[in-house]
Amino acid sequence: MRVVDLLARKGSDVTTIGADASVTEALRRLADRDVGALVVSEDGQRIRGIISERDIVRALAASGPAVLEGAVGAIMTSEVRSCDPDTTVDELMALMTERRIRHVPVVIDERLSGIVSIGDIVKHRISELEAETSTMHEYIWHGR
Description:
- This protein is an alpha+beta fold.
- 48% of the residues lie in helices and 16% in strands.
- The strands form 2 sheets. The chain has a 3-stranded mixed beta sheet with strand order 1-2-3. Strands 4-5 form a two-stranded antiparallel ribbon.
- The mean pLDDT is 93.
């Protein structure tokens, strides 16, 4: 399976935020959209960075509550790993595991076109395993 197939199931909606927005605003968007990361982009197309719950927690631990009034751009992850729609799910899992990242933007021609989370990958794997188990049960119980 490829990333394009995952996006076809889950949709390509991506929540973005500008680098000048406050960290408090980022927290509001994370909570309102029930997501774990926001792509930092001024135009919704070009990726400038990514900010996750993990980034915010680390900044709070390092600098205290004053970080909440600061800009997203000050604490975002600037080096963003992305993939394209033809990336396989196995390749994406390897990237996420190797880089210890939980959200990977999907890019076509340098433009943001979706995002895949580790939760999306887990959901896909569970579906695969359930289908495999069902097929094996059918084979075992209803003949060859």
